[in-house]
Amino acid sequence: MANAINWFEIPVQDMDRASKFYAEVLDGELHRQEVMGTEMAFLPMEGEGVGGALCKGEMHKPSSEGSILYLNGGEDLATPLSKVETAGGKVTLPKTKISDEIGYFAFFVDTEGNSIGFHSPK
Question: Is 94 helix (H, G, I), strand (E, B) or coil?
Fold first, then answer.
């Protein structure tokens, strides 16, 4: 197995609000479409690899409890983290060093109430 994760979905209640939040924080455009009755907005990514989407549907309920998803914070997660609160979210754990080898992480709550992490090497 190349990756432990091959796809992820972030549940949302308000697709317009959530799409705006993630587009601003991740500094990229989200492509939206409906798939099998679920409204989806695909998060920006480059090339091959693990992707994910915002999802609005009966099976998708936002929560701040349960599994934690870590988004790629780029070279330095301070950049996207600095946009969280102006985009309508809340930083719940500032940039924190794990170790020299692993890098840094931080937590935020998005506009839908999901607890999400960022990870970066610097």
Answer: strand
